[in-house]
# Entry
Amino acid sequence: MPLVDLHTHSTASDGILSPENLVSRAKSKGVEVLALTDHDTLAGVAAATAAAAAAGLKLIAGIELSSQWRGRGIHIVGLNVDTGHPAMAEARRHQLQVREERATRIADKLAKYGFEGTLAGARRWAGEAAVGRPHFARYLEEAGHVGSVNEAFKKYLGAGKPGDIKEMWPAMDRVVGWISAAGGVAVLAHPDKYQLTRTRLVALLEDFCEGGGRALEVISGFQQQRLTLELAELARRFELHVSCGSDFHVPDQPWQELGACGTLPPDCPPVWALWDAA
# Structure
C-alpha cells in the first residue's frame, strides 16, 4: 500500500507551508498520494497539483468544510472534488462570508478581555487566506498576550472558549451535499477530536450517512492503535470507506507530521477505491 496522507493544510488556509513547499516536504517524507484539504478554500490546489506532477507524486484535490451538527462544530473533508463545479463555488462563497462575519465576532469577544487590534493582527497573519482562529492565536502570541499558540486556544479560542463560535456554520447535510454534487467523497474528519460519547458519535454517523457521507477518517495523525480499531469497527458498522491523514499544519510536530498517519485497517475498504473504481 502506498504511503497516503489525505488531510493536510497550506498557507491557502491556516498552514505554515505554501502548497509547493507542502508537496516538497511530503515527497521528502515518502508520501506517494497527497490530498490538500485547506479550510473552506481550493485556492492552493492548482499550485499543489503542478508541484506534485513535477515531483512524481499523486495529488488529490480536496477541501475541509466547517459545518455544525446539533450545536457542535463538525469538519467534513471533501476528497477528489471537481474544483470547477458550481457547488464548490457556492460552498466557497458561503464559507468565506461566514468566516468574515465570524472573525469580527471573535475579535469582539477578545476585545472584552482587553485585547485590541486582534482582527487587524489576525488578517496580517492570514495574508490572502480567510481569517481563522489559528491566525488570531498567532497574533495573540506575537502581541505577548499569551506565551504560545496552544495557550491561546486553551484560554480563548479552543472548544467551548469565548472565541469558539460555531453556530454560524451551515448544517452538516448541506456541506455533505456540496461535496457530493461536485463529484467528491465526503469524509467525517478526526471524529475523536469532537470528544463525543459513543452514543453521540453513533448518532453523528447515522446523520452523516443519511446525508450522503461515504467515508470516515479512522486515523488522524499519531494516535493509539486502540482508537484506530474502534473507529474501524464503526466504519464497518455503517459500511463506510476509511481514510487517513496527518492534519498537517506546521512542520516538526511529530504527532501531525506529513505521512505520519499509520496504516489503514486491511479489512476496511480505503476511500480511494471510490474514485479509482469510477
Strands lie at 4-5, 33-36, 58-69, 72-79, 185-188, 215-220, 241-245. The domain at 93-157 is CATH 1.10.150.650 (DNA polymerase; domain 1). The chain has two domains: 4-87+172-276, 93-157. DSSP finds ten helices and seven strands in the chain.
